[in-house]
Amino acid sequence: MTAHNLIDTPPRLQYLSQDIVGIKLEPIVALASLRQVGVEVLSVLADTRHSEDFFCDRSAGWSLTLLEAQLAALKNTPHGHNLFINLPITVLTEPASFQRLIRLPCVPLNIALVDLAAFLALSVAQKQRVVQNLQQLSRQGHAIWLDDIDDVLGQSFLSCRLPLSGIKIDKEAFWRLRDTPFPLLSACRACAYRRY
After folding, report:
1. CA torsion sign, 125 to 127 to 130 to 132?
2. Secondary structure letter of residue 147 according to DSSP
3. For labelling, which of 35, 77, 93, 103 has a CA lying 20 to 30 Å from the CA of 125?
4. What digits encode the pLDDT tens for the residues 46-92?
């Protein structure tokens, strides 16, 4: 499936950054059924060559302001439900940012955690706080996903016991391992089984 460029540039996005020129929705497909289960909300940048670098340097507050602008832009569209949104771990480690997140007036979201290596670098106390915050989000009806898992990163999360609803497999890893998917699938299964 291809991505749909739904909205050009809402004013709130332009206010955040002149580099953001629109919103793109990419379908999320369940491997078991091959059905679309939602859409991932992504920002379209004027210069797409450095999109990962652009977002990794942003603060938790900036990320939440971006999320608010995206949700406002998508509120009255047919895609306003079952959205997959990307949030950095810092939103869950900074108390003010987390309080802002849980107070967002929105339908339950599929929250995909990005920058997973940053989670692994946290102290034990910080990891426990993140897990407690994820549990609170789950109680509010939000689904928690790991974003862009590959065969190596999946193994690292086996002992984390995060309250996950799903795992988004990195598309590059998927295509690379589609003929021999055992390492990636076994890591995903192990993450799922360790929840219980």
Report:
1. negative
2. E
3. 103
4. 876 667 777 877 889 999 999 998 888 888 777 667 899 999 999 99
Whether 99 has a pLDDT exceeding 70, the answer reads yes
- Predicted TM-score (pTM) of the model is 0.81
How many angstroms separate the CA atoms of 128 and 137, rounded? 14
DSSP state of 170: P
Alpha-carbon dihedral of residues 70, 76, 81, 84, nearest 10 degrees?
Answer: -20
147 half-sphere exposure, CB direction, 13 A CA radius: 19
Rg value, the chain, Cα: 16
Q: Tell me what pLDDT residue 2 has.
A: 41
The continuous run of DSSP H or E covering 4 comes out as strand 4-7
With a cut of 60, say whether residue 196 has pLDDT above it. no
| CA torsion through residues 24, 30, 34, 38, sign | negative
Are the C-beta atoms of 167 and 154 separated by less than 8 Å?
yes
CB 111 within 8 A of CB 136: no
Relative to beta strand 83-88, strand 36-45 is: parallel
Rounding to the nearest 10 degrees, give the CA dihedral for residues 5, 7, 148, 195: -130
Token couple for 4? 């749909």
Contact call for residues 85 and 69 (beta carbons, < 8 A): no
In whole angstroms, give the CA distance from residue 181 to residue 125: 34
